[in-house]
Design goal:
Blueprint: H1 12-36, H2 44-55, H3 59-71, H4 79-109, H5 116-128, H6 137-158, H7 161-189, H8 207-218, H9 223-251, H10 264-279, H11 281-287, H12 290-317, H13 327-352, H14 356-363
Helix pairs in contact: 1-2, 1-3, 1-10, 1-12, 1-13, 2-9, 2-13, 3-8, 3-10, 4-6, 4-14, 7-8, 8-10, 9-10, 12-13
Length: about 375
């Protein structure tokens, strides 16, 4: 590999991808309200929100890819150590933030007078079913994948590059291409298409992005394939908002077919972006001074914590985006919300990280 690695063993293109992805996650959430509050798809405000949201769809797949690239590098020598150091901090963070968001929703937003016992029963039920808050699903998903890491890490290291390509090709066929075809059939005919042979569990879900990240991080792909994936990624950035508009017009309501984490356009955006940043790694590292690298590393390390806290901050600091707002008004409001939520979240995370106990309880020990 030809990665520019900092003295702290940080890889700058991975750090930059983390930062870009957490910004994209914030964009997804600050644009969601307007996109789902109207079925008038010809207003300037809807189009601005659609463009912002569409361009940020790479975020979740890239987070899974980064996790796979980083965690699958090392060998799991002790199941106990791996569980305590990797999985338990995520479980603690999940419980802590589920409780925080539940209390905030129940007693601040809904002004509930529910008693403590009833609240705890309700919380436990929602916690088991992942119904406490919208963005915490990611922790459930990443914990589930981490449980497979002791086995998956052995598998990927035992596989040749050709075998990993075969896995990724089959995963793409089952999870991306097949899903795209079934989505198209459903919208055109109102009938669900089910092909039993495509039900292959190991080749379905976010595990494919996890292994894709490992593959792209560890192997150099041909220039031709890079160009194909990169160009399809560029096309997808432009295609997603247009396709979403026409699909929504056809359905009469917001159609999220091209917004999904397994949509064909999202896949190419995520893969193309990962390849681009890896290609530019050495050049970026050479141009960026040590102070900027330290800041990038600091923000990158805080990205997980920002993910956990940002929706709480959004409720408190973001401005309302009007459905009938002009192009300029909507753009300025969304950019303000993005900057405010990101900056306030980062600063608050750094303040909370001054206390080690708080860091361990809220953020799994991550800075």
């Amino acid at each position: 590999m030809n990665n520019a690695v900092l003295k702290t063993n940080r890889i700058i293109y991975i750090d930059l991808l983390r930062i870009l992805s957490i910004l994209a996650v914030i964009i997804l959430h600050i644009t969601a309200t307007l996109l789902t509050s109207t079925n008038d798809f010809n207003t300037a405000s809807w189009w601005v929100s659609n463009l912002f949201n569409s361009s940020a769809r790479f975020a979740v797949p890239v987070f899974f890819m980064i996790s796979g690239a980083m965690i699958l590098r090392s060998e799991v020598k002790s199941y106990k150590t791996f569980f305590l150091k990797r999985i338990m901090p995520l479980v603690v963070s999940l419980v802590s933030w589920s409780l925080i968001y539940s209390i905030f929703t129940q007693y601040y937003l809904q002004k509930s007078t529910m008693g403590a016992g009833e609240f705890l029963l309700s919380f436990a039920y929602k916690f088991i079913l992942d119904r406490n808050y919208i963005h915490l699903w990611f922790l459930y998903a990443i914990i589930a994948i981490y449980l497979t890491v002791p086995l998956i890490s052995r598998m990927v290291k035992a596989c040749t590059e050709k075998e990993l390509r075969y896995y990724l090709l089959l995963w793409f066929t089952v999870s991306i291409a097949y899903r795209f075809i079934t989505d198209c059939v459903l919208r055109i005919t109102s009938e669900s298409l089910y092909v039993p042979i495509m039900n292959i569990p190991l080749f379905m879900g976010y595990l494919g992005y996890f292994i894709l990240g490992y593959y792209l991080f560890h192997y150099e792909i041909s220039r031709k394939l890079k160009n194909v994936l990169f160009n399809l990624g560029i096309v997808s950035f432009f295609l997603t908002p247009v396709a979403t508009y026409f699909a929504s017009m056809y359905s009469g309501v917001l159609d999220e077919m091209f917004y999904g984490n397994y949509s064909v356009t999202t896949f190419f955006m995520a893969a193309g972006l990962f390849i681009l940043f890896k290609e530019k790694d050495v050049a970026i590292s050479a141009k960026v001074n040590d102070k900027v690298k330290r800041l990038v590393g600091s923000i990158s390390k805080a990205s997980f914590s920002i993910y956990l806290i940002h929706l709480l901050i959004e409720i408190m600091v973001s401005r309302r985006t009007e459905v009938e707002g002009s192009l300029v008004e909507t753009t300025v409001t969304l950019l303000f919300n993005l900057g405010a939520v990101f900056v306030v979240s980062y600063i608050l995370v750094k303040i909370l990280n001054l206390n080690k106990i708080v860091t361990n309880v809220l953020f799994g020990g991550k800075g």
